[in-house]
Amino acid sequence: MNKKLPVYQRVIIYGVLILICLICIIPIITVISISFSTDMAIIKDGYGILPKGFTLEAYKYVLKDMESILRSYGISIFVTVTGCVLGLSFNAMIAYVLSRKDYKYKKQLTVFLIIPMVLNGGLVPTYIWITKYLHLKNTIWVMILPMLIVPWFIILLRTFFSQIPSSLIEAATVDGASELTIFVKIVLPLAKPALATVGMFITLNYWNDWFQPLMYIDNSELYNLQYRLYILMRDVQEMIKNSSISGMGISIADLPTESMRMAMCVIAAGPMLVIFPFFQKYFVKGLTVGGVKG
Amino acid sequence: MKKRMGKAGRKKTMALTAMALPASVLLFIFSYIPIAGLVIAFKDFRYDKGFLGSEWVGFKNFEFFFKSNDAWIVLRNTIGLNLLFIGVTLVIAVSVALMINEIRSRIAVKAIQTIMFFPYFMSWVVVGYLLYAYLHHDYGIINQLLNFFGLESIAWYAKSAYWPVILTFMYAWKVAGYYSVIYYAGLMGIDDSYYEAAALDGASKWQMIWSVTLPMIRSIIICMVILQIGRIMYADFGLFFQLTRDSGALYATTDVLDTYIFRALRVTGDIGIGSAVGCFQAVAGFILIMVSNFIVRKIDSESALF
């Protein structure tokens, strides 16, 4: 490895990196702090990076509307799991076919895959097609199907699959294994790291999606977590109006609306921020293999 | 014998084609048909008449857009801000990668990468909340700081002049960690013997960075930048929509093609203009991506999209 820097330069480097790390996490800490602050303190002193006072009041009010939060969690989980299972299967299957040098229509299929990467119909035709012709508006499938196939994932997977020695596949063919058996029994187990990487990207895509609901979902029963959070940001009152709190004789003015927003944000974003760092190595692995195509 | 081989070959082709079918069908439905739908840019689209039944109007929809004041503002914002994002993110990500490369402790490297990756895991909605905590007029942390130093509060969500800076900062905040991982991986691939040779020649650390490290990752950097420029017509909708809270007062500096099309479709209901702008974006984007990919393939065919 190359030689060490003088001590003072290393101190500067560590200092700068620590500063950047702080800039990355302080906003997150701020939101958590606000969610535990009392509204009295917020109105008096404003938001703080550290909690001002400590109360669970905001969470208590947000969770009074447990039913709609759980429903949104349910929608987000269903969409993410379904999208991940179907997306991973379909993308991996076509990627495997493309990785096979002996596939007769390899060239045609590659072109078929590349065209959507360089040209797309855009928002307006897509919207009209999905609402007027496919009638997918206000269905859960509109949050799953249009995002299922991602050419970039296919190319990433194909790169992995091409590294599998073709002699393995040939040997299995001679043994009389069907193409599907070879794919499931031989190729997939060898490609686990690649599948994990792409699986993480797909999960992130679905879990963080709010655009599909923004375009296609009006029915509040189908709001996913991110979209519910967006609605709350737009209008805290709109959220409360429809919820069970409004029937409890509490006027909106008495609610800790400022900390409630942030509490909702923590409830919506928290679990993923705890889970994802554990899978981060797969992102890093995928990025290094997928190279610059991201 | 020959005949049997042919039969086995056909069976194999059929089995493989069947495996490619689900993805192909979905791609056809959700990508190809909307591409064909671009024709509505040349029509007076009416919901009841549909894609095929609506009347042709030639370039009228395009004329409306390009003769309006919006065209210049929206194009300037889309291209200008994207260039700003690409440049700033590049400098930060490469600098961070170079700095991490000087750190010997594996644990420290991992910790820094994990923390810098946090923002990447967040949706733009959540990032919008974080920003709101800082920019809120009465309670926001930035205005508190301004007041602390005796300065007046600023109505951030109403003053468009600040937003190019805010958006650039937030974009870099979210993706710099991601890109620095890519560049860091490039640095890890540099063979130690280059550094040893440079050390023998008496090169200082900084000379090594200039004359060994940077040239070695130059092709990755160039390819990344060109590919990003290829997508310069496409703005990150979430960034512009969520962080600005879709505030009309900010449109002068924050309205981009994607937000403009979104509003034409869903707010003002002007499908004609929306589809014309969308068609322009698709065609200009197509040309740029093809050109940039062509250039990248000349430099480093491995890095090209296709």
From TrEMBL, chain A:
<keyword id="KW-0813">Transport</keyword>
<feature type="transmembrane region" description="Helical">
    <location>
        <begin position="182"/>
        <end position="207"/>
    </location>
</feature>
<dbReference type="GO" id="GO:0005886">
    <property type="term" value="C:plasma membrane"/>
</dbReference>
<keyword id="KW-0812">Transmembrane</keyword>
<dbReference type="Pfam" id="PF00528">
    <property type="entry name" value="BPD_transp_1"/>
</dbReference>
<feature type="transmembrane region" description="Helical">
    <location>
        <begin position="140"/>
        <end position="161"/>
    </location>
</feature>
<feature type="transmembrane region" description="Helical">
    <location>
        <begin position="73"/>
        <end position="97"/>
    </location>
</feature>
<comment type="similarity">
    <text>Belongs to the binding-protein-dependent transport system permease family.</text>
</comment>
<feature type="transmembrane region" description="Helical">
    <location>
        <begin position="109"/>
        <end position="128"/>
    </location>
</feature>
<keyword id="KW-0472">Membrane</keyword>
<dbReference type="GO" id="GO:0055085">
    <property type="term" value="P:transmembrane transport"/>
</dbReference>
<protein>
    <submittedName>
        <fullName>Carbohydrate ABC transporter membrane protein 2 (CUT1 family)</fullName>
    </submittedName>
</protein>
<dbReference type="InterPro" id="IPR000515">
    <property type="entry name" value="MetI-like"/>
</dbReference>
<feature type="domain" description="ABC transmembrane type-1">
    <location>
        <begin position="73"/>
        <end position="279"/>
    </location>
</feature>
<keyword id="KW-1003">Cell membrane</keyword>
<keyword id="KW-1133">Transmembrane helix</keyword>
<feature type="transmembrane region" description="Helical">
    <location>
        <begin position="12"/>
        <end position="36"/>
    </location>
</feature>
<feature type="transmembrane region" description="Helical">
    <location>
        <begin position="260"/>
        <end position="279"/>
    </location>
</feature>
<dbReference type="InterPro" id="IPR035906">
    <property type="entry name" value="MetI-like_sf"/>
</dbReference>
Automatic annotation (TrEMBL), chain B:
<feature type="transmembrane region" description="Helical">
    <location>
        <begin position="165"/>
        <end position="186"/>
    </location>
</feature>
<feature type="transmembrane region" description="Helical">
    <location>
        <begin position="79"/>
        <end position="100"/>
    </location>
</feature>
<feature type="domain" description="ABC transmembrane type-1">
    <location>
        <begin position="75"/>
        <end position="292"/>
    </location>
</feature>
<dbReference type="InterPro" id="IPR000515">
    <property type="entry name" value="MetI-like"/>
</dbReference>
<dbReference type="InterPro" id="IPR035906">
    <property type="entry name" value="MetI-like_sf"/>
</dbReference>
<keyword id="KW-0472">Membrane</keyword>
<dbReference type="GO" id="GO:0005886">
    <property type="term" value="C:plasma membrane"/>
</dbReference>
<keyword id="KW-0813">Transport</keyword>
<feature type="transmembrane region" description="Helical">
    <location>
        <begin position="206"/>
        <end position="227"/>
    </location>
</feature>
<keyword id="KW-1003">Cell membrane</keyword>
<protein>
    <submittedName>
        <fullName>Putative aldouronate transport system permease protein</fullName>
    </submittedName>
</protein>
<keyword id="KW-1133">Transmembrane helix</keyword>
<dbReference type="InterPro" id="IPR050809">
    <property type="entry name" value="UgpAE/MalFG_permease"/>
</dbReference>
<comment type="similarity">
    <text>Belongs to the binding-protein-dependent transport system permease family.</text>
</comment>
<dbReference type="GO" id="GO:0055085">
    <property type="term" value="P:transmembrane transport"/>
</dbReference>
<dbReference type="Pfam" id="PF00528">
    <property type="entry name" value="BPD_transp_1"/>
</dbReference>
<feature type="transmembrane region" description="Helical">
    <location>
        <begin position="271"/>
        <end position="296"/>
    </location>
</feature>
<feature type="transmembrane region" description="Helical">
    <location>
        <begin position="112"/>
        <end position="135"/>
    </location>
</feature>
<keyword id="KW-0812">Transmembrane</keyword>
